[in-house]
Amino acid sequence: IYNYILCVGRINSRKAQIKTIKALKDLDINLVFIGREDPSELEYFESFQKLVKKFDNIHWIGQLDNSSDLLISAYSNAKVHILPSNPPEFPGISSLEAGIAGTKVITTKALAVTETLGDFAYYCDSTEESIYEATINALKDKDNSDLQEHLYNNFTWEKITDKIINIYQKVHKEN
User: Fold this and answer.
1) Cis link prior to 87 (omega < 30° from 0)?
2) Do residues 9 and 92 touch, judged by C-beta distance below 8 A?
3) Among 68, 96, 79, 102, CA closest to 30
4) Residue 1: pLDDT above 70?
């Protein structure tokens, strides 16, 4: 499957997978969820599973190991990654991983998220209407590597480590 929207994250109400399904169920594209159930929200997970089973274009794979080739492939081959968390997260690691893989990213708007992803991501509120609108915009736009380049230039482990070392060196010199 190469024609799909991906959502990676623990299945819980904060990640808004049910709202995402309701917003996107009628699109002519597969919606793929990767992640395990949240043990503290089993009722939400049961409702999620019922919705997944109800639609032929919606799929739940379950949990994959972070270093799994299947997870890496899922990020790389998705048209869009969506994580409409409520409240917004400092961008979810899955959004960063999707962006590094070259996939367009839809997430909820918050200061920490916009400072990290800038104008290179698509933003939505955690409402069905907003999720739908952001998804349509992302699917219509041409693929671009601006987010991927931005993340590689600023947020790889090497870049973060270099920044931390520079801060320590500066503090050491001042003392």
Assistant:
1) yes
2) yes
3) 79
4) no
Residues ≥6 apart with Cβ < 8 Å to 72: 101
pLDDT reported for residue 44: 98
Strand partners, 34: 8, 62
How do 80-83 and 122-124 pair as beta strands?
unpaired
- In tens, the pLDDT along 95-153 reads 999 999 999 999 998 888 888 899 999 999 989 999 999 999 999 988 777 999 999 88
Q: What is the token pair recorded at 54? A: 């109800």
Q: Taking a C-beta distance cutoff of 8 angstroms, is the pair 8, 34 a contact?
A: yes
C-alpha distances (whole Å) from 99 to each of 6, 25, 57, 77, 170 are 12, 24, 24, 12, 31
**Rounded-to-integer distance, Cα 19 and Cα 130, Å:** 10
Q: What's the pLDDT tens digit per position in 97-113?
A: 999 999 999 999 888 88
**CA–CA separation, 48 vs 85, rounded Å?**
15
Alpha-carbon gap, residue 112 to 91, rounded angstroms:
7
pTM of the entire predicted model = 0.89
Say if residues 100 and 121 touch (Cβ distance below 8 Å).
no
3, 115 contact by CB (below 8 A)? no
